Each structure stands twice: as C-alpha cells, then as structure tokens.
Amino acid sequence: MKNSLHISLNQKINAFLLIVIVNACQIGVGIHGFQRVVYQDAKQDAWIAVILSFIYAHFVAFIMIKTLKMFQDQDLYGIHQMIFGKYFGNFLNSLYVLYCSFAFVSIIINYKEVINTWVFPHLASSFLYISLLIIVIYTFTGGFRIIIGISTINFLFTLAIPIILLVPLKYANINSLLPILDNDMINLLKGVYSMTFTIAGFELINFIYPNVKEKSKVGKYVHIGLLTTLFVYLTTMLIALTYFNGEQLNKLIWATLSMLSMIKLPFFERIEILIICGWMIIILPNLCIYLWAAYRGVIRIKSISPNKFVWSFSIVIFILTLFINTRSQIEMVNNIFSKIAFIIVFIYPFILFIFALIKKLFTKRKVQNDETI
Amino acid sequence: MKSMKKNLKKKLAGIKDKQPNQQNQENQEDLPIYPNKNDFIKSVKDKTHSPADLIIRYVSPTITIVYIDNLVDVQSLNELVLNGLKDKESITPSEIHSILPIPEINLSIKLNKSINEMLIGAALIHIVGQPEVVIAKISSYQSRGLAAPENESQVIGAQIAFNENINTNLSLIRRYITNPNLCNEKFTLGRHTQTTVSMLYIHGIAAETHVNTVRQRISDLNIADLIDSAVLAELIEDNSFSIFPQMLLTERPDRFSDGLLSGKVGIVVNGSSMAILCPYTFFEFFQSKEDQNLRWPIATFVRLLRFVAVFLSIFLTPIYVASLTFHYEVIPQPLLVPLSESRAKVPFPPIIEALFLELIIELLREAGLRLPTKVGQTIGIVGGIVLGTAAVQAGITSNILIIIIALCALASFTTPNYTMGNVIRVLRFPTIVLAGFWGYYGIMLAFCILLIHLLKQSSLGAPYTAPYYPPRFKDWPDSIIRLPLLLIKRKSVNTRGGNSEHPINEQNGGKKV
Description:
The complex is a heterodimer.
Chain A: H1 17-26, H2 34-42, H3 46-70, H4 76-119, H5 125-142, H6 144-164, H7 185-194, H8 196-199, H9 205-208, H10 218-243, H11 246-251, H12 255-260, H13 271-278, H14 280-301, H15 306-321, H16 327-372
Chain B: H1 2-17, H2 22-28, H3 37-48, E1 54-58, E2 63-68, H4 74-84, H5 93-99, E3 105-108, H6 111-119, E4 122-127, E5 133-137, H7 166-176, E6 182-189, E7 195-202, H8 208-220, H9 229-236, E8 248-250, H10 253-261, E9 265-269, E10 275-278, H11 296-325, H12 333-343, H13 350-370, H14 373-393, H15 399-412, H16 418-456, E11 458-459, E12 462-463
Antiparallel strand pairs in B: 1-2, 2-4, 3-5, 4-5, 6-7, 7-9, 8-10, 9-10, 11-12
C-alpha cells in the first residue's frame, strides 16, 4: 500500500498561508450571485443564513482537522486507504477525485457564463476554456508553491471587494433588513443549505494538511481564514440586501456585479467589466488547487507524471465543458454540484470521523492485545 | 525541467567546444624549457607563431629576456629587471628569484605555463644551461581612468564607477569593505581569452548555499571565450529562457559593496565595467542606491512612483486599445467627446495605431542610443516632435494616443536598472496585441501569465518574488517602500544562510507538485 506520502521540505508552506488558501478556495464564482439563491428561501434574513452557514463550516473544519490529526502526515486519500483498506479506499478516493474535477468544471463554466453575459456576448466558449486551461496548466506545472503564490495575490483582490462595495452603500436602505427573523426556521435552514455551493472549498485543507509545516497551528489559521471569508460574504450580502429591494434581488442572477456597475470614476465607468476580467486571478487558484487535489488522488491510484496528468485532464475537461452551453444547463450543473458538495463537504467529514474513531479504538485494542500476549 | 535546462546549457557549451581546431590541440602538448638559448627562443617563437611584438633581449651572453611589447611595464623592466641583472654572468634562476625586487616572481619548468604568463604580461628570464625559467610579473594594464557612472547616475551619493580593469575594481571594493571576511575566489574562464573572474562574498553574511551554487556554476562552465560580465550572467542564470534578468549588472562600486554587505554574492569580470550581483529579486531591480541616501518619505514616494510607472508602462496603452476596440461603455461621456474627436480622422483600428506609435518611439530610442550623444539628443527631440505632430496632422494617429504612448515611454525609463527597463518596454507589445484581440480579457491573460512567470522564477534558487511571496514580513520595510533605516534589518532575509526556513527551490532538480 502506497500510504506514506513523501513531501520534500521545499514543498511545505507556513501555517499562516492557510488563511489565504482557505480564502482562495472559498471565494470564486459563487460570490457573483449567491445573494439571490439565499434570498429565495431566507428573505431579508439571508445574512443570518450566511452567519449560520459559517458557524456550521467552522464546526465541520474543526472535525476535519481532528480527523487529520489522528493520522500523522496523511491527507484524506491516505486516511481513506488506512481506514477502508486498499480497494474501498481507492474507490472513495476516485469519488473524491471526481468531485474535485466536478468542482473544476463548475467553476470554469460559471466564469465563462459571466464573461459571455457581461463582457463578450459572442466570444467562443472554446476560446475561453482553452485560454483558462492554458493558464491553469502553466501554473500547475510550476508546482504547489506557485499555486499558493497565486492564492496569495488573489487574497489581496478578494479583500478589495468589500472596499469597492462601500460605494453602493450610500444608496443603502437599512430598513430592508427589517423585520429580523420574520421567517420560519425551515426557510432559514434552506438558506443555509443554499450557501453550501458558495462556501465549499475549505474541504481542500484535507489535502493541503500534509504540506503544512507547523501542524499544531493548522486549526487556528483555518478558522481565521474562514472568518475572513465570512467577512467578505457577509458584507457583500448585507450591502446587496440593503441596496436592492427584496423583489429585485429575486431577479438578479449576479447581484454583486449589478451593484458594481453603478460605480463611476471620472475616467472610468462600468467598472464591473474590468473586475469581471480581473476575476480570472480569483478563480485561478480555485481551479489550480482543485486540480492539484485531484492529482494527489490520482497518483495514489496510478503513478503518473504531473505534466502528463495536467494535459490529459485539461483535454477531458475541455471536451466535457463543450457540452454545457445554455444557462439552464449551467443552472442544472450548479444544482447537482451544490447537492454533492453539501454531502461531501458538510456531512461526510462526520461519517469519516466516526470511522476514524472506530479504527483508532480497534488498533489500540489490537496493540493492547498484542502487548498482553 | 531545471536539469533539462542544465543539460541544454551544457550542450550549448559543447557546441562551442567543437570550435578549437587541430592547431590548438597541438599547442596542448607540454614542452620542457630548453637549457640551450637558441632552442628556447625557437620553441617560444613556435608556440606563439613569432608575433611582431615579441621582444627578445640579450642582457648578457647567458641571460635572455623574452616578453611581449606593451604588455609589460617598461619602467619596472628597466629599473628593476635590467638593472638587477646587469653584471650577473653566472647565476641560477633561484638566485634571480631572490635578488629581483619584484613583488610577484615565479619559477617554472613548463613552457606552456610560462608562455601563458608571458601573454598576460610577464617577462621570461632564461639562463643558458638551466631547464627553468624565471617569470617576472611586471605587467601593465591599459585602462581608462575612473569616471562617474553613466548608466546608473544619481544625484546624492558616490560619483564613481567601475572601469574595465579587475584590479582597480577589486581595490575599489576593498576600499568600501574593510573586513578580513571579504573572500575573493579567482577563476580563469575561456580557453581563448583566459579571462580572470573573481567571486566575492563576505564570509558569515553570504549564504553558504549561494556561494556554493555560484562556485559550482562557474567551475562547470566550459566556454571558449568570455568578453563581458553580461555573458557570464546569462550563462550562470537559473533560467536563461526567461525575459527577466535574474542577476544584477551594476557599474556602481557602492551598490556592489552594499549588495555584498547584505549577503549577496558578487562576480567581477576582467575587461568588463559591469559587476554581477546575485541572488536578486524582482523588486530589488526597482531600487536605486540613491533611495538609501534620501529621506525615507521621499524614497518611499519615489519607489512607489516607479512601481506605478511600471504598471502604467505595461498596461496603459493596452487599456486604451481594449477600451476603444471593445469596451466603449467604460469611457465616461465627457471623455468620450475629446476621444472621438481626436480619433475621427484616424483610419486604422486602435491596435494598428498603437503598435505604429510604439514602434516609432522604440525607433527613436534606439536611434538616439546608437548616435553620438549630441546628435542623439537632437534626433530624439526633433524626431519626436516632428513625427508626433506630423502623424497627428496627417490623421494617422490621435492626439490622446500620443500622450499615452509618450507617458508609457517616459514611465519605462524610470526603472533604475537598464536591463529591467528594456524588459518592461518589450512586455508592452504582446500585451497590446492581446488587448487588441480580446479586450480586457486579453490584458488579464497577459497579467496572469506575467504573474505566474514571475512566481516561477528563481535567482540562485532563491525565490524571485520575495519578500511578498513567500511572505517575509521582516523584509517589507525595504521593498517597494522604504521605512527609516532603524526599522530595516541589514541582512536581507532572501539571502540568509544556514538552515533556511524557506528552502524554496533550493534544490534545483526537485520536481514540484
């Protein structure tokens, strides 16, 4: 069993970089229009749904890190193999690889949709996919450190979003938030559930964990990272809720972008066009980290060189994405993905944790038995 | 990848290897010193193909002096060597060795070594009956005097530059750094040129790994000739395929010494007025030595200005092209009127217009550079004004684009390092093309590729984008800003030694993922 993962020191990163990694993984295309999805269920309490979803995310992250700490220096793939044995473990691993690829596809088609709607209505989607994939390949071949480097730059960009959104704030109507909690709990929880597609991404710490130098600080920085993402999402949500009338929000697919389009500079209008193109740098680490996580899974099953992997992966993704064209198809993919993401990100860690506990107990007893004998 | 590049480099060096012809190989076989006077002279003449400037002087019936005209110092030859050997009839080489008042004097029994020494300015003293020759090193170097730096001029600070003589340069550096730990390792590179190369570093400050890497890379070189330090820098760089320079070429001894003191490794090449400093990060290329001499708020302002200039220089023209080609809606209405007025007569799409003007600017720059100084300036001004005005009046470009292009050109010249300034200027062209085809999306593609490329680079294995990635907060006070000197740690973290916390790319071979 190829369980031990050899990571050389120059592939390791400082724990505080987890802040930017968690942030980079979580903020992607979702932030363009998550307000509508949450608003549909939770109405004016959507911001509470955001907070609740993050509280849940913190809890999940806590469980994940607990599980990871049980197995020294292992990523999720290794843990699968250790708990479930080679065959079933590899089966779960391939499911996870598929999930990562699915996330990759979902991000890339959503971005393409935004570009086609806002910037270039007739730009061929194949060109967009090829250009994005080429950049992803270029980053990926640079290695893990380059991917994290891009995340670091992306962190600055994401932190700029709330600052830019301060401009629409002058038209905000705080009364739109009232009455607070005028909604039944079920709808609020539905809103929380709708947030999952948006805030999925932090599950990738499962794979980055072995590459972190100071393991004891992982928890602290992951939680800080989650808090910074919460800050970005919460401000975006609050500003959207107060800027738009409730019913307007129901009809806007990309509420954040619509808000941006009112910003005017003396020499520049329609700033959202620039920002959408600049969004490339925000989805790039997203794509690369998912790709990297998928690669980690694949080499557990079959050893393959990173170059070969990334090229074949890109070709497959490119062919797949060509079948998804219309808005309704994209919506369908998003719906399926949010369901899968909910199960994998928000439920599965608990199941795994229980299995890990049982496994630990079992091995401990075995060791004790061995000792008594 | 790295190892592949290494191999490629070796291959390239190998191609040069094949140059030496048979004659050179003939020269390789070593001959002894002939005790007989005539045999000795004949062997020297054979080896050197009896050049016209080979001088043979018979001091006495037994003593012969052979040297190359103009390579030896005539004064010391007359006063020290000839006077010292005046009345000596029978004398042994070791006696000469002890009586001649010359600082560097050697004995040799090998003909090849003696001739090599003669070719760099030694006089060979041969005594009949002795299979040994005395090598008196009384060489004189022709070099220009020390002058103010021309390419890296600054207002406040030392006004002295390296010249082409390695000894002068080394003495300049030694005058700045009086420290017994200043190490100087000498190499001789190039089979035809025998160029002296000195590697300098301060033991205890420079990282051991960097010193070893440089030493290894220089001694691995197998080249036929080496004329300038820029060539050496390219040969020992991490990635010769990148457009970005990874080692600094400086003509300022104060900047060089400053680099050594902050833990970098320096290389001085004989015959070149530019010295190499490495490892260097991307951001350090935009720092000037003068920044340390200015008040810190001003230095910070100037540094930030330079980075804004770099950004403008690369992206302003592309943004103009993209906005006018695809994104009319981003231009506010008041600005749209003058823009459309100035572009009303222009028959070309913005990309052609922009490329055309950029080309003119580059032509003016290149012409101004190649012409003699006085003519160059005139051509620059006259060409700029005449061409610019005429182009607008003829209606092939718009006024506003001329302003933008001039701004970009100006901005690209604020980069303190000439090599880096060139890179910034060239990067604009692919960005304009991408912007002309795909608007802001194309610009963003260019930006991303640039960013990833920078992240991928390394200088002597140290990260190129430090101190921002990997983040090294201790270095931030002296990066794109400069805080008061009290807050700046002298030793750059990028060049720290020993058990480095961030051994990024330290092993060149390691495959990452």
